[in-house]
Amino acid sequence: MRITRDSVASLANVSSATVSRVYNAPDSVSADLRQRVFEAAETLGYSPNCLAASLRRKGTGTLAFVEFNKTGRPYYWGNFPSFDWFFGRSLRGVQQVIGQSSWQLRFYNVRTKEDMQALQKQCDGILSYDVDMSEELALFEDISIPYVLSHHLHESTQGLCVRTDNRYGGVLQGNYLRDKGCVRPLYITGFIESVMPHAERLEGFLSVYPEARVLHTSIGAATSITSILPQIEQILSSDHIDGIAAVNDLTLFDVLMRLPLDMPAVGYDASPFSALLGAKAASVDIQCGQLYQKATQKLLLLLSGQQEESSTIQPRLVIGSAGM
């Protein structure tokens, strides 16, 4: 006997349309109904036919995961191998949604508006990865298929977005040191003129510590910390510094490996580096897995004809372990 969508619907005691929504727009169905459908599908050995689903939709059955050309910048965090983990966590969030749907995911790198125009003919929806420049936003002008933008974006950005709040993350860093009793912290950052997230994190931190000592360096470069090590040592000895924060975990890790400090410390990103430091340091978790999971959910809802609004996934403070 051939197992069909109707077979699953009958066993789960739901309509065939509900089974379709579970696989094509899972967030439009309650958790209870989803569970019943998945259990029935597992019992019957059913899996959705991606090709048939795409033919019913009169589309390609494909979603595009789009990265952008970031070459030529003074600094881009994603170009460093030490940040590969972020991409993996983000994709895990995407997979958790796509894996329960009938959609297929393909990966693309876009450089020009012509690339984007050609891409929209090859897929039914676009999930963007790390749109952070106005030039990248401009690539979406005149795009006729549904798309979702993520993740370093202003609240005023046009289009459906799922974003992080870097300023709030800086506030979390400041609050952590304040709760530890710090009065005079040092904050290490870099490229705040060209990297919006760095500037926003610093702004948030300074809202808690307006008089904090701020030190700038070439974040990410091999000599970014060694070049300022004498300054750090001089500041620590003369400015009564009692806490340290950094724009990312890699920078904080580099400092603490060279200058073991007996004072509260907090980084940013909840990377594997923060796990290595254990309870010696806290970090701020962007929650990239949840962020891209939410972005994927919104894209599927758009494709099912529902209206969606932009949202923000707030970062959270973590201590002693890497985030999701």
What does this molecule look like?
By secondary structure, the chain is of the alpha/beta class. The protein folds into three domains: 5-41, no CATH class; 57-164 and 287-315, Response regulator (Rossmann fold); 166-285, 3-Layer(aba) Sandwich (Rossmann fold). It is built from 13 helices and twelve strands. The chain has helices at 5-12, 16-24, 31-44, 50-57, 84-98, 113-119, 134-138, 166-179, 196-208, 229-238, 249-258, 272-277, 288-303, and strands at 62-68, 104-110, 125-128, 147-148, 162-164, 185-189, 213-216, 243-246, 265-266, 282-285, 311-313, 316-319. Strand 3 (125-128), helix 7 and strand 4 form a beta-alpha-beta unit. Helix 1 (5-12) crosses helix 3 (31-44). 41% of the residues are buried. GO terms for molecular function: DNA-binding transcription factor activity; transcription cis-regulatory region binding. It comes from Sphaerochaeta globosa (strain ATCC BAA-1886 / DSM 22777 / Buddy) (Spirochaeta sp. (strain Buddy)).
Strand order of the largest sheet: 2-1-3-4
Which CATH class of the largest domain?
Alpha Beta
Query: What is the 3D shape?
Result: elongated
- CATH architecture descriptor text of the largest domain: 3-Layer(aba) Sandwich
GO molecular function: DNA-binding transcription factor activity; transcription cis-regulatory region binding
InterPro entries: HTH_LacI, Lambda_DNA-bd_dom_sf, Peripla_BP_I
Protein name: Transcriptional regulator, LacI family
Domain HTH lacI-type: 8-57
